[in-house]
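Record 1 of the preview.
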Amino acid sequence: MSNQDHLDSTPQKDQAVPRLYSKWVILFFSMFGSVVMGALLYARNLKEIGQTKHAWITVGGAIAYLMLLARIGYGLTFDRFYQFLPINIIAAIMLVGPMWNFHFADVKESKSRSPWLPLLVLGGIGGLLWWVYSV
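->
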């Protein structure tokens, strides 16, 4: 076996390892940001492992879930914090629990994707909302 044959048969480890947002990042953004933001991060992970169809379904499902349960929660309380926090906690647990185990069961190794960009986006949205409601 020549040296070139050995180099050609060596797998490219970096190319095969997906870069994913961790469960903790998705949990944090789902609970303290929005169900949709957590679903977008989850969908990015799905696209990274080649499940683009499931990514669109996840985001659409998160939007429908948020609209339905916000409508139900609106009748129970008028406080937005208490209206959305339980909805976000339930969705976060669903994303990092049963859904994660279903979609990522075959992923044995991954690289961690940095949470800084989503954190900046969340901070920007929060700052914009604060500015709009304070004027």
